[in-house]
Design brief:
Blueprint: H1 4-17, H2 28-32, H3 38-41, H4 49-65, H5 72-93, H6 104-118, H7 123-141, H8 147-153, H9 159-174
Length: about 190
């Protein structure tokens, strides 16, 4: 069974697909002129249905790999932090980028967070996932493994968003924002 918060996230992504993307996409000139919400909403809209389906598959794969996904409240705050980090990073690293749409950067961040959290329970799986994502990011960074995806989603793969998402996920995990909840001890004990 897929975690409820992962399903809720998928529903938000599907709902957002039907909103006008031109009003929500990440776009530097509109962000710097005061439309700050695009720092967040640009990650909710997609280039086409294939792009949306790839991102939905990514969320569902993570939910299946990590059945104890993240509670909805933490997922919300973590996603907002990652979206802001990715967006601000893109503003700094890619001043030439005219626009951006998609949740894949956040998916890379969620994968990093879930793998870091899994180090305590399934060390080798988590290390393997982190290593595989690192190799994927290096391949994307040098220009390999992007042409088929570019054709499928109808636009370029912005590998920097993936790298920024992965890095922000590692930082968030390292900062302890994903601590497991432990029941409060009773004063009667």
């Amino acid at each position: 069974m897929v975690n409820r918060s992962a399903l809720l996230l998928c529903m938000v992504l599907v709902f957002s697909f039907f909103l006008p993307p031109q009003l929500l996409q990440w776009q530097p000139d509109t962000i710097t002129s005061g439309q700050w919400w695009r720092l967040f909403t640009g990650h909710l809209v997609h280039l086409n249905v294939n792009h949306l389906l790839l991102n939905l598959a990514g969320v569902l794969i993570l939910a299946l790999l990590f059945p104890r996904f993240l509670p909805a409240d933490r997922l919300l705050w973590i996603t907002l932090l990652m979206a802001a980090a990715i967006s601000l990073g893109l503003l700094s690293l890619r001043p030439d980028l005219a626009s951006y749409r998609g949740f894949s950067g956040c998916i890379h961040g969620l994968a990093a967070i879930l793998a870091m959290r899994g180090l305590k329970t399934d060390r080798w799986f988590s290390i393997t996932l982190l290593a595989a994502l690192s190799v994927k990011l290096v391949l994307e960074g040098v220009g390999l493994d992007r042409s088929e995806t570019t054709a499928l989603i109808g636009g370029p793969v912005i590998w920097e968003a993936h790298a920024l998402g992965f890095a922000s996920g590692l930082l968030i995990a390292g900062a302890g924002f994903i601590r497991r909840r432990t029941p409060k001890q009773s004063s009667l004990e």
